[in-house]
Amino acid sequence: MKRIILITGGQRSGKSSFAEKKAHELTTSPVYLATARIWDEEFRKRVERHQKNRGPEWTNIEEEKELSRHNVTGRVVVIDCVTLWCTNFFMEFDSNVASSLEAVKKEFDKFTQQDATFIFVTNEIGWGGVSENKLQRKFTDLQGWTNQYIASHADDVYLMASGIPVKIK
């Protein structure tokens, strides 16, 4: 039975750890779908550290944009993270928020047509005030609207604060 879970919060709030724990509660063979694009060596090391922290029971998939290319029917899949996924569209569409949002929504809808349990991890990046940087403001809009879209389709939404999950939907 299809189920969508959204886990949101600030940076280093415990979102990914909670998502992985939730996946383990639901299955012994979860899928980890990583949306990160490797930008530099520091980020590559971060990704490698995350991979090592997960055990051999995980199926690891790396996909920057086209999540729907992967058949996860009947599986529990952690999508980490929506922020990096949005960044990939934002870059492709030359920082055009409307085009990026349309593409993200279309891909989300296509991907979540599968009969699976989806655990999306995202960031609340707009809580820190309004940026002086125009590009950052545009991306914050995209991220916020994407989060709202996913949350509106989610069965459960958790807000992470200092490692503590608070169910808000």
Automatic annotation (TrEMBL):
Binding site for GTP: 9-16, 34-36, 62, 80
Keywords: ATP-binding, Cobalamin biosynthesis, GTP-binding, Kinase, Nucleotide-binding, Nucleotidyltransferase, Transferase
CDD domains, alphabetized: CobU
Annotated GO biological process: cobalamin biosynthetic process
Family annotation (Pfam families): CobU
EC number(s) recorded for this UniProt protein: 2.7.1.156, 2.7.7.62
EC class: transferase
Pathway involvement of the protein, from the record: Cofactor biosynthesis; adenosylcobalamin biosynthesis; adenosylcobalamin from cob(II)yrinate a,c-diamide: step 6/7; Cofactor biosynthesis; adenosylcobalamin biosynthesis; adenosylcobalamin from cob(II)yrinate a,c-diamide: step 5/7
Catalysed reaction equations from the record: adenosylcob(III)inamide + ATP = adenosylcob(III)inamide phosphate + ADP + H(+); adenosylcob(III)inamide + GTP = adenosylcob(III)inamide phosphate + GDP + H(+); adenosylcob(III)inamide phosphate + GTP + H(+) = adenosylcob(III)inamide-GDP + diphosphate
Catalytic center residues: 50 (gmp-histidine intermediate)
One MF term in the entry's GO annotations: GTP binding
Family the UniProt entry places it in: Belongs to the CobU/CobP family.
Its job: Catalyzes ATP-dependent phosphorylation of adenosylcobinamide and addition of GMP to adenosylcobinamide phosphate.
Protein name: Adenosylcobinamide kinase
